Amino acid sequence: MTAQVITVTSGKGGVGKTTAVANLAVALASNGSRVVCIDGDIGLRNLDVILGLENRIVYDIVDVIEGRCRLKQAMIKDKRLPNLHLIPAAQTRDKNAVSASDMTRLTKDLRAECDFILIDSPAGIERGFKNAIAPADRVLVVTNPEVSAVRDADRVIGILEAEDKGPGALIINRLNPSLVRRQEMLSADDVLDLLAIELIGIVPEDEGVLIGSNRGAPVALDPKSKAGEAFRNIARRLKGEEVPFLDLESGSSLWERIQKLAGRR
Amino acid sequence: MNETNSLIQIKGLRDGLLVSLSDAPWDEQLSALLSRVDAQPSFFQGARLALDVASQVLKVDDLVALRDHLSERGIFLWAVISESPTTQQTAQLLGLATRISKPRPEETRQFAVEDLGEETALFLDRTLRSGMRIEFPGHVVILGDVNPGAEIVAEGNVIVWGRLRGMVHAGAKGNRQAVVCALEFSPMQLRIADEASAAMSPQTQSKPQIARINQFGNLQAENWSPA
């Protein structure tokens, strides 16, 4: 049994890559999978903070690559989920400390030990991004329903296609159903229409996500959160389950829902 | 050394050096090229280099690494010429030229392009995404969408069998008879010859449209109807 390497990327910054990695990691791990997250954003590490593991860092990914420690020593075990580990980024180095072949070698060593390896890509389409996608078996592209984010996602998908990494699967993050209803936000259909790739999840806007990130407790751990449920569903889809998409329209009026059902929207 | 030299040929061009590689494995080619450069650093220093990679399929990483290696040696890589569409696309992604002013001497297909001029068409069976740019000295036909942020520059007509939402410049060398048509016509910007117009009539209902320069010399798009 060998692990699947999944890289989460976006092009644009601030759309929720790191949040997605943290939430998918805890969702997969609480479902029984063995998960290792790798923070690929060297020099600007965040994933440890969102997972609430910052104070446990001793060694980081650059230490592993440069041979100052063994791989196991850099893997931080999560305090809640014993089958979730994090390999943190180095905060005091930059992206040039790591190469694409280093990433491939690192994931190769990890593949036998776990079920999923999640790599958090830095924003942009430069070296750090190239390093993060190099070992990927599958790429998840995160975007917000926002014109500039969608444009960047389109560019990233073009590069993934050119690199033979497939078009990737799409996560639409921070969708606000009431803004969409008032036609003040791109709908999931608008985004899909342009990007034309497989959709793997729609995560609604939810202030719980921010609160969870600040507390180091990803929202996917909260059984009542709608965003958490969306992330848990994506995790199940990654495992190959067929999971229906959440009904994010539940706040809309009965009449609008009937119209939608009748396909007359 | 003799063996490595036979892998690569170097010629002077009006606008730089043309280095032609063979179909040997890329790693060998690369090290042959670099050792050649390192053998005569003063000859190559500051050169503009166009690379003919024949049918090699190169990924972004390969070309980025090559460009880095060359720039460390004071050489500017400006063009990659290839028969492989993948490599051409990779080069375009990196903003490198994929054609040089002289045709490939041994390529009869290129002569055909010269002879036929605008009557040649480039057919692309894919969606053009943001950041992709197609330049062609004839007509361009796209079977797919042209997304916002993608660009097409053609000397002839441009036909998009799909949604046109990027930038198109038809008749780029001044042909005012050139037309642009699309199944769903909402280009970010449209140019024909030297006329330009920003986002024309955003389409709510998607009807095929055709744009041309009308008798008053203005760009105009209208619904397409069978003649």
Task: Give me the number of helical elements of chain A.
Answer: 12
Question: How many domain regions of chain A?
Answer: 1
List how many beta strands of chain B DSSP finds. Answer: 15
Which protein chains make the most extensive interface, counting residues with beta carbons within 8 Å of the other chain's beta carbons?
A: A-B, 16 and 18 residues
Fraction of residues in helix of chain A: 25-40%
Q: Class of the largest domain in chain B in CATH?
A: Mainly Beta
Q: Regarding quaternary structure, how should these chains be classified? A: heterodimer
The CATH topology label of chain A is Rossmann fold
N-to-C SSE string of chain B, H for helix and E for strand: HEEHHEHEHHEEEEEEEEEEE
Radius of gyration of chain A: 18 Å
Q: What is the approximate shape of chain B?
A: elongated
The total of helices of chain B stands at: 6
Q: Which structural category fits the helices and strands of chain A?
A: alpha/beta
Query: Stretches of chain A where pLDDT falls below 50 for ≥5 residues?
Result: none
In what order do the strands lie side by side in the largest sheet of chain A?
Answer: 3-4-2-5-1-6-7-8
Structural account:
The complex is a heterodimer of chains A (265) and B (227). Chain A is an alpha/beta fold. Chain A has helices at 17-30, 47-50, 61-65, 71-74, 100-111, 127-133, 147-162, 177-181, 188-195, 207-215, 226-238, 254-261, and strands spanning 4-9, 35-39, 76-77, 84-87, 116-120, 138-143, 169-175, 198-204. Chain A has one domain (4-264): 3-Layer(aba) Sandwich (Rossmann fold), CATH 3.40.50. Chain A has an 8-stranded mixed sheet, sandwiched between helices. In chain A, strand 3 and strand 4 form a beta hairpin. In chain A, helix 5 (100-111) packs parallel to helix 6 (127-133). By secondary structure, chain B is an alpha/beta fold. Helices cover 24% and strands 33% of the residues of chain B. In chain B, the strands form 3 sheets. A 6-stranded mixed sheet of chain B has the order 5-7-9-11-14-15, with no helix packed on it. In chain B, strands 6-8-10-12-13 form a 5-stranded mixed sheet, with no helix packed on it. The relative contact order of chain B is 0.08. Chain B folds into 2 domains: 2-108, Alpha-Beta Plaits (2-Layer Sandwich), CATH 3.30.70.260; 113-223, Pectate Lyase C-like (3 Solenoid). The A-B interface holds A 100, 130, 134, 151-152, 154-155, 157-159, 161-164, 194, 196 and B 59-61, 64, 86, 89-90, 93, 127, 129-132, 145, 147-149, 165.
